[in-house]
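SEQUENCE WITH STRUCTURE:
===
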Amino acid sequence: MPVQIQIFDTTLRDGTQGEKVSFSAEDKFRIAMRLDEFGIHYIEGGWPGSNPKDMAFFEKAKHHTFRQSKIVAFGSTCRTGNSPQEDPNLQALIEAETPAVSVFGKSWLLHVTQALNITPEKNLELISGSLKYLKEHGKEVIYDAEHFFDGYKDNPGYAIQSLLAAQDAGADVLVLCDTNGGTLTHEVMEIVQCVRDAVHAPIGIHAHNDSELAVANSLAAIRAGAIHVQGTINGYGERCGNANLCSVIPNLQLKLGYRCVSSDQLERLSTLSKFVSELGNLIPDNKQPYVGKSAFAHKGGVHVSAVIKNEQTYEHIKPELVGNSRRVLVSDLSGKSNVSYKSEELGFDFDKKSVESSQIVQELKKLENEGYQFEAAEASFELLVKRMTNKAPDFFKLEGFRVIMERNANGESRSEATIKVRVNDQIELSAAEGNGPVHALDAALRRALCEFYPEISSMHLQDYKVRVLNEKDGTGAKVRVLIDSAKDGSSWGTVGVSENIIDASWKALSEGIIYFLMNQKSKPKNRHSLADSGQDEKLKIPS
């Protein structure tokens, strides 16, 4: 049986410390659910008590049952002068009500004597007392030995002492952290082997990428005896980032024979990578190994000719193993194979060789070329397929809209939208004000449609993101708008692309409502019957 490796994801904590990386509490929860589905064993959600977003995430996570993942709260050993019982940080870890906690402590005497300004003995007491207290409260404790490799190179005896203090206090895993990311791969292997001989608790690795070695160092640590590996999706993290789990996992499983997730789950890796980058409003790295758009792209000449005959000639794995697909970038060599690959990737329910399949794939190619991405906009993709297979419902038709924004000399702004829609040959004209033009348009559309579909008052816009697609065009650049809508805990994403941000927003807004009505199996009410019953006066338009 292959050795099982524990996968610990810290995208939601360490990953968010990267430049330009930011997730809302709802984003973090959606990512956690997707990580659980993928088979991640531990999901570090953040530092409870440090900010409102992390507090909101842990509160939401309390009420959700995760199938495979354990949610982890992060914190430090108690502060000097505090007993564990009175330390706010440890209390916040307990109050987060997560089954596991990750706690970091100092392994490097430089940090002990200069950053903490305490004696080496006192540091060991902080580690031991903090971990014992958490174990007494029933927590699975993952101990992060911060700056361990630097500390070991400076004073190996004390670094090992710090691990033994954690081990004796009941730590379930001892994670060796290359916090500054400067340790070379041969050093990692040698040091992990020495640690393996000195402790009996399971060992983990947490590597940063400042020397472009985070993935290599993680693999080396596993080969030297570690069974627990930490990292982030897409390698997000402070400075140069963390070990990229999108490379660590397939390398361990496909190249070294360890078991991380099931083969079915591994096939979702590319989609997971894109999903996280989309929610973070970050441009995916096309050249990222395994999951990048260019990872299995071939352009002309000898490469294309050889790959068509036998893909092993220029591909180190089958791209389908990680949910990616081969791309032939020469038009006269594209065609049936591209249709087949795209069909598998998107999970069409009909024959891949059908006319419908070819038409949908060609339309997807066209839309992706225009800037559309459907990884975090599954609702828009479903509507696209239904339209092209003549199964799309027709809830309303836009007759036109107008959006006005005014700003006076005092700096006060006002937005107003007027919209005209047709439902069952009935015209409805509505106007609304909003905090901005998109908010006003959303309110006007809802006001018009609530006359016919009162149920839309129960759904709401949950998130709104805009990404500039071609920055060199300045204010005339094309933008992609991603909107998340929600009702009763369920959410769905829609997307719109245009050089006009209002037009792109309209596409995403309207599709969000159409998708909701489709899943509600809604039928339009007669406007006059609503008025007669007085229901229209009770309808509330969400702000």
Remarks:
- The first helix runs from residue 25 to 38.
- The longest strand covers residues 397-407.
- Confidence is low (pLDDT under 50) at residues 330-343, 529-543.
